[in-house]
Design brief:
There is one protein chain. By secondary structure, this protein is of the alpha/beta class. The protein has 3 domains: 195 residues, 3-Layer(aba) Sandwich (Rossmann fold), CATH 3.40.50; 172 residues, P-loop containing nucleotide triphosphate hydrolases (Rossmann fold, 3-Layer(aba) Sandwich); 59 residues, 2-Layer Sandwich (Alpha-Beta Plaits). The protein is built from 14 helices and 14 strands. The strands form 3 sheets. Strands 6-7-5-8-9-10 form a 6-stranded mixed sheet, with helices on both faces. A 4-stranded parallel sheet has the order 2-1-3-4, with helices on both faces. The protein has a 4-stranded antiparallel sheet with strand order 12-13-11-14. A hairpin with a 3-residue loop joins strand 12 and strand 13. Helix 1 crosses helix 4, helix 4 runs antiparallel to helix 5 and helix 5 packs antiparallel against helix 6.
Length: 437
């Protein structure tokens, strides 16, 4: 890990998964544990043991009851982990008391996700957002490592060991830091918004990939764009938004945007800090929701994404921009594959089955994407001078050419165009539509 301090070759963790047997879980316990262990692996932690700890009655000062705490203390003395991960949100007092009792560094789910984001952030905006989220999170907690804020990259610093340099900082100084970061973010976002407005003037349709973390968004992005975006079988392998120009069905150009993966119980600090980035989804012309069909809890993950989109003002059931894409279909047995094929036929929203890893179903997805991107378009026919190569090339680049008839001195080109583009074509090249269907 890039935390500015010396660590062993691989740090060890003891994972505690709180379990309330009185409450029904939306996900199977094993799915929840696998996700938590995946989060730990994402920052190269070796999980020595996972303890499913009963917490039917949460203790205000320590979260777990005395018996559970004593049993965990025995494990800690035996295993001597570098850090304890509690896969839930702890209050500052709960975290402080448990650290004192177990004499070991503790991070909760929020701290763990912040740590991952700190390591993954590449762009200036991404780093600023992570730093801001970390400061907001740290506001009410013990002062820990702040050295990560002095580095260009690295984790959020909650994993620091006893030898790490401590910087005492009071609330006034912390608030000043938060204010300064917010000003920097405002400037970075203003620059990005100018870029977005510039793209709108092109204009190419914006196609945005969304989905639960590790659903395969970056793999699909790389397959469609032939790019080399970092894609690994780990949560939050991609954090910073990435954009590339692509060619849809019929030769239509578009911009494909990859976004940070969503996750259940996404920390409030992160939601607020990354809201401006996530809100870029609302400007998209097409929203492709990637779902990992190979997971038993795919339905719960789907709902988590829908809830976050709803928080962004997107009415999932009524929004005509959405395509559901069930990825990793190559990992399904025949029975489950047939279940998804039936779902594809009955789904109220457009639905595609793909394997991004094996490039299966991509053509059908691009065809569906093109259909939605062009849904507000109309059919125009232009008689273009046969020697006017620029005008002919423009129609192929910006519309979907449906028919081309060669005449002696001109071409009759029938194309599907957005009304704004049709006006632009006439203004730039001087050709009025001969017929509009």
């Amino acid at each position: 890990m890039h935390l500015g301090v010396q660590y062993k070759e691989r740090d060890t963790a003891y994972l505690i998964q709180p379990v309330d047997k009185a409450k029904s879980l939306r996900r199977a316990l094993q799915d929840i544990i696998e996700e938590a262990e995946g989060l730990a692996r994402a920052i190269d932690l070796n999980v020595l043991k996972t303890n499913n700890a009963n917490c039917s009655k949460i203790q205000a000062g320590s979260y777990f009851g005395k018996g559970i705490r004593e049993q965990i203390a025995q494990d800690i003395n035996l295993l001597e982990p570098d850090v304890i991960i509690v896969n839930t949100t702890l209050s500052p007092i709960q975290q402080r008391n448990l650290e004192k009792e177990w004499n070991t560094k503790i991070i909760d789910r929020t701290g763990l996700i912040l740590e991952i984001f700190g390591e993954r952030a590449q762009t200036k905006e991404g780093r600023l957002q992570v730093d801001l989220a970390a400061l907001e999170y740290q506001k009410s907690r013990l002062v820990r490592s702040w050295t990560h804020l002095e580095r260009q990259r690295g984790g959020a610093g909650f994993m620091g060991g006893p030898g790490e340099r401590q910087i005492e900082i009071d609330r006034r100084q912390l608030s000043q830091r938060i204010t300064r970061l917010k000003k920097e973010l405002t400037e970075v976002r203003r620059t990005r918004d100018l870029g977005r407005k510039s793209r709108e003037r092109v204009p190419f349709p914006i196609v945005s990939l969304v989905g639960y973390t590790n659903a395969g968004k970056s793999t699909l992005f790389n397959d469609i764009t032939h790019a080399d975006v970092y894609a690994e079988d780990l949560p939050f392998a991609t954090l910073d938004p990435t954009m590339r120009k692509i060619i849809l069905h019929g030769g239509k150009e578009a911009i494909l945007s990859d976004t940070v993966g969503f996750i259940s119980d996404l920390p409030t600090h992160l939601v607020e800090s990354f809201r401006a980035t996530l809100e870029q989804i609302t400007y998209a012309d097409v929203i492709i929701h990637i779902i990992d069909s190979s997971r038993e809890d795919y339905a719960a993950q789907r709902e988590d994404v829908i809830n976050i989109l709803h928080d962004l003002g997107i009415d999932y059931d009524k929004d005509e921009r959405i395509i559901e894409v069930y990825n990793k279909c190559d990992l399904l047995d025949e029975e489950r594959l047939q279940d998804f094929q039936r779902l594809q036929k009955t789904s109220p929203v457009p639905c595609c089955l793909i394997s991004a890893y094996h490039s299966k179903g991509i053509k059908a997805l691009l065809k569906e994407t093109s259909s939605i991107a062009m849904r507000d378009s109309s059919v125009y026919t232009y008689k273009v001078d046969v020697e006017d190569g620029k005008a002919i090339a423009w129609l192929y680049a910006h519309g979907e050419v449906l028919e081309r008839k060669d005449k002696n001195t001109n071409l009759a080109i029938t194309t599907l165009l957005e009304p704004s583009l049709a006006k632009k074509f006439t203004k730039v090249f001087g050709y009025a539509p001969a017929k509009k269907a």
